Amino acid sequence: MPALFVLAGPTAVGKGTVSAYIREHYPQVWLSVSVTTRRPRPGEVEGRHYHFVSQERFDELAAQGEFLEYAVVHGRASYGTPRAPMQAAIEAGLLPLLEIDLQGARQVREQLPEAHFVFLAPPSWDELVRRLVGRGTETPEERERRLATARLELAAADEFDTVIVNDDVRRAAGELVHLMQQH
């Protein structure tokens, strides 16, 4: 049975970009689609990027034990990984990948310590700031909150089995998929 891979890293490091590249170029990889209470960003599609739900619906799913992990991220929105689709992907022999935040990765480690945890790191702090500012989807206050969180998240890299630097999306995605295929 294939190992579950967990991809995490600081805000704006490019987790979503690397995951989107993998989704497009590596059909053998199954990417989990998280549930969130935040509003869609421009270009995000329901069911492909996230399942967008109300806080009430999210709380119902959590109470029913439907999430492998869930958390409130950046003090704003709730995010969770649905358990059933991930289990089905593993049973189908696909290469399962969860793209989640640090809190979620820690929760998954508690439940599934046999999973392989990959930290996606920026080439530098300045590049991380440039990416966050450049995407232009956050208010200045939210940007500052995310950068404060990112400093803490970067310090957690040593909790992971593997660190991949996202200096080039194609290279980083290829390195991750190669690692998954080896396991």
TrEMBL record:
The lineage of its organism: Bacteria, Bacillati, Actinomycetota, Actinomycetes, Micrococcales. It is an enzyme of class 2 (transferase). Residues 2-181 form the Guanylate kinase-like domain. This is Guanylate kinase. Its EC number is 2.7.4.8. One of its GO terms (cellular component) is cytosol. CDD domains: GMPK. InterPro entries: GK/Ca_channel_bsu (IPR008145), Guanylate_kin-like_dom (IPR008144), Guanylate_kinase (IPR017665), Guanylate_kinase_CS (IPR020590), P-loop_NTPase (IPR027417). It holds the Pfam family Guanylate_kin. ATP binds at residues 9-16. PANTHER family: GUANYLATE KINASE (PTHR23117:SF13), GUANYLATE KINASE-RELATED (PTHR23117). Essential for recycling GMP and indirectly, cGMP. The keyword ATP-binding applies. GO terms for molecular function: ATP binding; GMP kinase activity. Belongs to the guanylate kinase family. It is found in: Cytoplasm. It catalyses: GMP + ATP = GDP + ADP. Keywords: ATP-binding, Cytoplasm, Kinase, Nucleotide-binding, Transferase. The keyword Mitochondrion does not apply.
